[in-house]
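Submission sheet (multi-component)
Chains listed below:
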Amino acid sequence: MTFSDITIHAMAERVITYTGYMARWQPDARERLERAAFDLFVEQGFASTTVPQIAARAGLSTRTFFRHFADKRDALFADEHAVPDQAGRIVAEAPDGITPLQIVASGFDAVAAAQFSREKSYYIARHQIIQSDDGLRERQLHTQAALVEALRSGFVQRGSDPVDALLAAHLTATVFSVSIGRWLSAESTEPLATLLRDTFDRMLRTAAS
Amino acid sequence: MTFSDITIHAMAERVITYTGYMARWQPDARERLERAAFDLFVEQGFASTTVPQIAARAGLSTRTFFRHFADKRDALFADEHAVPDQAGRIVAEAPDGITPLQIVASGFDAVAAAQFSREKSYYIARHQIIQSDDGLRERQLHTQAALVEALRSGFVQRGSDPVDALLAAHLTATVFSVSIGRWLSAESTEPLATLLRDTFDRMLRTAAS
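Outcome: structure written.
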């Protein structure tokens, strides 16, 4: 244990006492922990950040941290299920008689508005944190796999052939990942919803060519 | 250190002496190590297998193992660059005037014949080993990313727009991963090349629908 570990540990202990009181007045512990984790990952890197540091920055105890998250990685994926869940709902609630890709195209505005509503700089910083760590990249790939599975299962429930449903789900995930990559690139100024539509149209043209 | 560790260590040491002589007559050390690693992963699981065990099974020293592979994970991904390399060559050598997806469709037979030439049971067992371990799944995702990058870069060199090139690369990777999944599934009896063509056609129909 180094001197700085001891200091951080002492800080965390001090903060526990303090926030035992604060917690009654601030019900947003989860959001504060997420924010503190994110700020520390940006400032000093994911690998160098400890759970006691995150808790101390949020003014909460490590015990409170572990009531909300399994580990520090978890604090960066708090919205993990939001995109697959919303995509699954859009598919389930789509009118009869339209194809999987027509459903997907109809949902771009809603997904962009609900799931990417923060400052773009937040998503750029988050992307950089994820790229810095094998475990985080693996976790993000699980999230993408969850999107594919939510779509595939939704399409099958609407009566699609299983292979066609899987293909439509993969095509959708491709449109999302390519669009988000374009949106986060340095030169991009277009809104995400515009890029989703443009990427979708290009995907159809590429497949038809 | 447990008793079995000591035994394995002693076995490995004994084998070093033995194979110092054998190595002059058996130049296929790399293949023997790959085979020994694979057999042990199947028999006792990836996590339980150690490098000294692999070396002992192959009748070689741990030092020889580390001349060929960085770690035991590496021994399962010896052909890692084969598919991206072959895909890159097919794109580079394609005649002018045909589209990215026409190039891809023309290469299915060659890729299936060259890269999936072993018994199907080998690929099924390998798939199960990879699914058993986070690090192996991450490594496989890197291989898939390398295929996308080889294709994207090849299409750009032929003059494709960068976004269209990336989309065509992703569509190709989707056709491969869905086809391989179909091929490895219990009920499948079709050759991989047939499934690649069928999945490709379905992907085009899905995109057009």
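Remark: Residues 31 and 78 of chain B are 9 Å apart (CA to CA).
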